[in-house]
Design brief:
Elements: E1 6-7, E2 10-11, E3 16-23, H1 42-55, H2 79-96, E4 108-114, E5 119-125, H3 132-143, E6 152-156, H4 159-168, E7 179-182
Parallel strand pairs: 3-6, 6-7
Antiparallel strand pairs: 1-2, 3-4, 4-5
Helix pairs in contact: 1-3
InterPro entries: KDZ (IPR040521)
């Protein structure tokens, strides 16, 4: 068996592939049954939210103009591309944020799925926006069950924004080098 090439002691191709995505309808559906085995506890989500807020002092992003466009340390694409992606996602998320939190405590589910489309873990979303701490708690849960040398491919429609935040604010320290980031392009929201 030939193993993938290694860079800095870590594999450059994933040993496993996962997908993070959300579903807003499932939280409102009384027929949805969720196994306790895949459910992330509320306390774990709260801890992840506190972890992210402690690491990230604010939400300001660096805006660039085309004449001073550059690549941020650790990123593979220029700031202009990251900002365009963020602007596009923010506009789409603001449209979805009209979902009422007065009628439902949960606004959706964020799930971590394996390559075979099987749910590994689910986190109840209680905010109107797609906050990064939901993805963080799912990844922390995943890595708590994997050997330290395991390299994980992560597909996420806004993976570039999560990777950017992880680098900028030192999130997922100790695990970041084990993630091969990818963008899932399954749907346009």
């Amino acid at each position: 068996m030939t193993l993938p090439p290694r860079e800095n002691g870590l594999m450059t191709t994933p040993m496993v592939t996962t997908l993070v995505d959300i579903c807003r309808i499932a939280a409102c559906c009384a027929l949805v049954e969720r196994s306790a085995l895949v459910q992330i506890f509320f306390e774990e989500v709260v801890d992840a939210e506190a972890y992210v807020h402690a690491k990230r002092p604010g939400t300001a992003t660096s805006k660039s103009n085309p004449q001073t466009d550059f690549k941020e340390p650790g990123m593979k694409v220029p700031v202009s591309a990251l900002n365009d992606c963020l602007d596009s996602f923010t506009a789409a998320d603001e449209q979805r944020s009209k979902a009422s939190t007065t009628l439902f405590a949960d606004t959706g589910l964020m799930g971590l799925l394996c390559l075979h489309n099987r749910v590994l873990w689910l986190a109840n979303m209680t905010s109107t926006g797609e906050r990064q701490f939901y993805a963080i708690v799912l990844l922390l849960k995943l890595f708590s069950h994997l050997p330290p040398s395991m390299t994980v491919g992560l597909l996420y429609d806004i993976g570039c924004q999560l990777e950017r935040s992880c680098i900028k604010w030192d999130l997922l320290d100790g695990y970041r080098d084990c993630i091969v980031w990818g963008i899932s392009v399954l749907e346009k929201k």
